[in-house]
Every structure is written in structure tokens, then in C-alpha cells.
Amino acid sequence: MTNLLTRMADAIKADFTDSPKKSRKDNPIDTLNGYLRDCEKEVEKVANLVERQRLLKKELTKELEAARSMAAKREEHVRLAEEAGENELAQAALREFTHYQGRRERLEMSVEESTNQLTSLEELHSGLKHKLKDMYIKRLEVMGRENVAEANKKAEHAFSENPGKTEEELRFKKIENYLKKLETGEKDKPAEELTIDQQIAQLQQKTDQNDSAQI
After folding, report:
1. Domain ranges of the chain
2. Which family does it belong to (predicted)?
3. How far is the first Cα of the chain from the last one, in angstroms, to the nearest whole number?
4. CA distances (Å), origin 114, targets 2, 79, 146
5. What pLDDT digit, counting tens, does each position of 83-106 carry?
């Protein structure tokens, strides 16, 4: 689990650093989502282990209470048998008392160990959940940077003079040029004005030709 988180951290640093030395063909969001899914699986595994450990501790504690109860009962039986002069019964009760006493001591150690293990698993689970939350936040941050990068890319492409523009981009460029003309006060000549200019030019040409003929 620790190795997985280490690999995830290293991969994130490598994939999403601003250094221009490395570029990835894969979508960074898809890559991060893959790491998130792996981390979610690990968190789920640890959560299951925590639950199993709790059940184990519960069973061990139950057995410990039973051993303590039987040890106390047999200890009392030993006393009663000895007071009654029943030596054989006292010996039998003593053997069982010794057995339950040993079991009680062993179970006390097991319960203590299982408690420590449960604490470690709970701490691990809590740490993994925090790391997973950080990964979710990291994904949101990356998505934000991806959105800005995509917007900048589209803007640069829309304002570039390179050929191969789409119809929408050409229309946008035409509108942009028109707005620039409005800002500078430049206006396109109406068709009528252009026609008059052409007629005047033709008239001047005829006049020049007549003058040349008279000479």
C-alpha cells in the first residue's frame, strides 16, 4: 500500500509538473483517474481489514471473558472441595483451574495484540482516506489547469493567421476585422460609390481618347 502511494505521488509529480522537458501523450485527467481508482481499491481493502480485525478482537475478548469466568469458578471449586476434605475433587478442580488460568493469560496477550493491530489498521485507513481526499483535490486542480490550457489553445488558434481555419473560425475572424475597422473609423465603400468611381474612370478614359484623336 505504501509503495502504491509512493508510485502515485511520483507519477503525479512527473505527469503534472510545469517543466517543458517532458510531455505525455495520455490525457493527464485519465491518468490521474486511473491512480484514483487504484487508491480507492486499496482504501477499500484496508477498510475490510479494519472490520475483520474488529470482529477478531471481539471474538478474542469474548473467549477471554469466558476463560476468566471458568478460572474463577474452578478456583472457588478448589476451595470448596478442600474445605470438604474431597482431595480428589479438589485436585480435579485445580487442574481445570490451571488450564483456564493459562488460557486466560494467553488470551489477555492476544487481546492486547489484536487491539494494537486494530489501532495500526485504523491509523493506516485514516491516512489513506486523507491521501485519497488530497488526490480528489489534485484532480480538481488539474482539471482547472486543463480547462485554462484548452481555452488558451482555442483562443490562439482562433486569432492566428494560419490557413486551414474552420468556417466558424473564419466567421469569427471576419467579425473581428469588422470591429477593428469600426474602432479605427475605416468603412467599406458601398457598392454605389464603387460603381460611380468606375463610371468616372471610364469617362476620363474616353475624354483622354477624344483629346488624342483631335490631335
Report:
1. 27-141
2. Belongs to the PspA/Vipp/IM30 family.
3. 105
4. 22, 34, 47
5. 999 999 999 999 999 999 999 999
